[in-house]
Design goal:
Layout: E1 6-11, H1 17-25, E2 28-34, E3 41-46, H2 47-54, E4 64-68, E5 71-82, E6 89-96, E7 103-112, H3 118-121, E8 125-128, E9 132-137, E10 146-149, E11 158-160, E12 171-172, E13 186-191
Parallel strand pairs: 1-4, 2-6, 7-10
Antiparallel strand pairs: 1-3, 2-3, 4-5, 5-6, 7-9, 8-13, 9-12, 11-13
Length: 200
Amino acid sequence: MSIAFEFVAESRGQSGTSAARVVRRQGRVPAVVYGGHADPVSVSLSHNEVLKHLANDAVYAHVLDLTIDGKVEKVVLKGLQRHPAKPQILHMDFMRVNMQEEIRVHVPIHFKGATVCVGVKAGGLLMPLMSDVEVVCLPSALPEFIEIDVTALAVGDSVHLHDLTPPAGVQFVALSHAHDEEQDLALVRIAASSVTPAAG
């Protein structure tokens, strides 16, 4: 994990809807930090700084440094509430992590070779079916993303979770349900297009 993310927060004494509104009017994001065998703590963060970090999707699958009143804690981002119509973050949930204990995190999926995919060049449509996949691992093994190479996929082909080899030390949560075919998620497929490509 080559990228380092640091969030700076301030503790806030009050929680609840009214208190959260006050925080938002101040240009900050209300948040809660929980887990790690400690009591939950209500905090707030600079909205502008939060948006800058969230522009990089690696932040969703990273062990983050959260500085609260000068004290640094290791956390992962577990929840995010966005405004339905505005570019505004309404609330965040952070979970403390112990570097010696496994965590469950949703990791983004990246597709490699989309522009040179066999099926796409034949007129098919690349259809991502999942944007992330849940993994369980030690924090030190947490991948920034799961990469799927779609270069060789033809029209009608798909990639399921069981087709992937997870990074070292990482397990796919859905596949931990032994022999449960319903958990073998389809992640991407190349669908036939209703438009016939022009002869070239």
